Input
Amino acid sequence: MRNKMSLEEAIKICTDLVGLGRESENIPISAARDRVASENVIALNDVPPFDRSKLDGYAVTAGDFEQINAGIAADYKIIGQIAAGSNHNIKLCCGTTARIMTGAPLPEGAHAVIRQEYTVKTGNRVNIMVRPGSETGCESRGSILSKAQEIDLAGSILNERLMELLISAGINSVKVFRRPRVYIISTGSELVMPGQPAAYGHIYNTNFSMLTGKLEREGCEVIQGRGDLNDTLPEIKKEVRKALDSADLVIITGGASEGDFDLVPAALRENGCQILCGELEMRPGRHTTIAVKDNVLIFNLPGNPNGGSILFDVLISPALRKLRGIKDFRRIWFNIGLAGPARCSASLRTFCRGQLIDGLNGPEAVPLQKNLKIEGIAPVILDIPAGKGQQGSVVRALLL
Amino acid sequence: MRNKMSLEEAIKICTDLVGLGRESENIPISAARDRVASENVIALNDVPPFDRSKLDGYAVTAGDFEQINAGIAADYKIIGQIAAGSNHNIKLCCGTTARIMTGAPLPEGAHAVIRQEYTVKTGNRVNIMVRPGSETGCESRGSILSKAQEIDLAGSILNERLMELLISAGINSVKVFRRPRVYIISTGSELVMPGQPAAYGHIYNTNFSMLTGKLEREGCEVIQGRGDLNDTLPEIKKEVRKALDSADLVIITGGASEGDFDLVPAALRENGCQILCGELEMRPGRHTTIAVKDNVLIFNLPGNPNGGSILFDVLISPALRKLRGIKDFRRIWFNIGLAGPARCSASLRTFCRGQLIDGLNGPEAVPLQKNLKIEGIAPVILDIPAGKGQQGSVVRALLL
Output
C-alpha cells in the first residue's frame, strides 16, 4: 500500500525529521554572505562608536538648544570646525557653536546640531533662524548596539543588512552552519548526459541542470551522482547506497511512477530506508516518494523537470532551509486572484508557476503553464484547488 | 544650480544612456546560468526527438483508439514491451497493442497510449475498460521545438527553465553578454576598512559589503576601488579618473551632500563628467548625483548604507539590468496596502523596505524602517507618497 498524504503533511514530516543545521565552522565575514549563522555574536564596539552628527550644521549646548526652541534669538560664536573623521578637542559652552559635518564626532558639551539651512553665518558668528523642534540631529554612541551586547544572530541568513551590522560592530569572523551536502541522481534508461551523442529513443538529462541551479541558490553543496542511470535494480541500489554514505539529503528523479521499470522505491527499501510517503495528493508530483535512513531524507521526484522543479520549491525547499539552520525556514504564502485561467485537475490540487502583474487592487497572478522563458520573472507558485482554475478565483501563492 | 528630478526621470535618463549589453562571449551551457543571452540560438534537434508516450500503459492504433472511444469493447493482443530508452522495431496493426512506459518511443502504427489503470491484463492479452476521450497520452516529435527552429533568446536571463530547453535542443554553448564591470568607491575621512583598527571619530566602511553583495547578485563584476578615501579633492579626482578608465559603471558613496567636504560632484566635473542630476525628489537619496562620461554612468549615493541600498534597488538596478543586456530590464511595481504605519516625509516621497504578510484579500506590506534582521524576507521596496504613511494607505511596491 502506498502511504498517501497532503503536501502539508509531507512538509511537516520532513521538517520535523531534519535537524536545524549540521556542524558549524568559523569563517571570515567577507565570505559569510548568504550563509546561516549558527551562534549569536557579541558586539566588539559601540555602534555608532561615538556621539555623532546626523547633519551638516552647527552644534550647540543643551541650554542654548532650549533657548533656540523657546524662540530666543541669538548669535553664536563659531569656535571651531569638525569634519567627519577628525579627532578634535573642541569644548562648547553657552553661546558658542562649532561648525560640524555629517558623521563627525560631537564636541564636548554639545547636545544638538542645527541644520545649516536654518542658519546664517556672518564672519565667525552664526545666527539661528528656525526653531528646530525636538529633533536633535545627533546620534548617541551605542544607540544601535552597545559594546558587549549579544546580537541575536543564530539561525539567520547573513544578508547585506546583517553583514553591515556585524562590520559596524567590529566583528571579523562568524560561526555558520556548513552547507548541506545534497546528492542528486537521475534514473531512466532513456537519459544521456548533455554533450554526449543521443541515440534514437534517448533524451538529454535536464534535471541535473535544474536541480544544481536550485540547490546552489539554496546555499547547498551539490554532489552530482549518476545522471544516466539505467532502470535496473542493482545499479539503482548501488548508487543509492553511495548517496546515503556521502550526503545529508538525496534527490532522485525518475523511476517513481507505477511502470514496470519504476524501481527506486524498491532500491530504497532494500537499502534499509523507511518509506514515509508513497503518493502526494497534488499535481504535479502525485508519484513522489519520500524516505528516510538515519537522518538522511530521500526525495524521489517525477522525471519531468517541470514537475520536479515545482516539488523542489514547495516540498524540498522548506526541509533544505531547516537543514541549512534557518530558524524561520517557512516561506510566505498569501491569497491572490488569478488574472487568467489555469488548466487544473478536477480532482486534485494543481500547482503551477505564476507571474505577478499590477492589478487594480494589488498584485494578481497569471498562471504560466507553457511559457518557459518568463520564469525569471515568475516569482510565485500557485496552489489551485481542484476545479478552481477560473479567472478571478482566489488561490494561495508562494513567493519564491 | 542643482538639477532636480523625480526618480522616474532619473531612471529614464540612465536607462536611455546605457547600452543594451556590452561585448558578447561564447561560453559552455554549464557555466551559463544567470548570464544574459546576446543572440538567438538554433535548435540542433527536435524536442522531443521522437514520438513518445506520456504514460505507463498500452499503445494502440488510430483505428482501435476510435473503436475504444466509441465504446466497442475488445481484447488486444500484446505483441511487445517498450521501456524508455529502448530502440525497438515493434509495429502495431489493428487488434494488437504494446505495453509501453513513460518516455518510451511509440511503436510504428501507434496513435495513442491507454493508461494502465484503465486496463486489465490476462496472459498476453489486455482488455480496455474505459473510454479515454480525446487525450492520446502521447507527445509528438518536435511538438516543443523543431530542429533548426530559432529560439528567441537574445536579451533573456538564462534561468533554469531556459537552460532545460537549450539542453533538450542539443545546445552545448551559448553567446552571452560579458558581465558589466562596476567600480565602487567610498569617500569619507571617517572611514576605515573592516579588519583595520578604528581610531576615535572613525567608523567601518559597510558600503563595500552592501554594494558588492548587491552587484554580485545582479551578475556584475565588482572592482573594489578605495573604500577609505579622504575628503580631499585631488585624491577623489584621481580615484574617479581610475574608475572611469576601468569600468562600465561607477558607484561612489559619500561626499554627495552639501557639507564643506562634499567634493564628489566637483571631482566629477573636473574629470569631464556631465552632471545629469544633482538632486532627487525623494527620501532617502535627496543628495544623489548622477553623471555621465562617454557611456559610463556615475552614481554618487549618500554615505548612509540604508539610503544607498534603497537607491541601488530603485535607481541603479534598472540601468544595470539594461547594461547586462536584459531586454525586459524594468522590474514589477504594484499597488499594496500598508499593514502598519510608515514614518514618512510630509513633503517628499519616502522609500523604505517592506515585508509581505498574508492579508485577508491578498498580500499586505509591513514597512520596515528599523529591523535590520528581517531583510532576507523583506522582498519589497515601498514608495510612500508624502504624508501618506498611515496604516491602510495603498502605495506602490517594487518586488525585488
Remarks:
- Chain A has a mean pLDDT of 93.
- Chain A touches chain B through 88 residues (CB under 8 Å).
- Helices of chain A lie at 7-17, 62-69, 160-168, 207-217, 233-246, 264-270, 305-324.
- The longest strand of chain A covers residues 349-359.
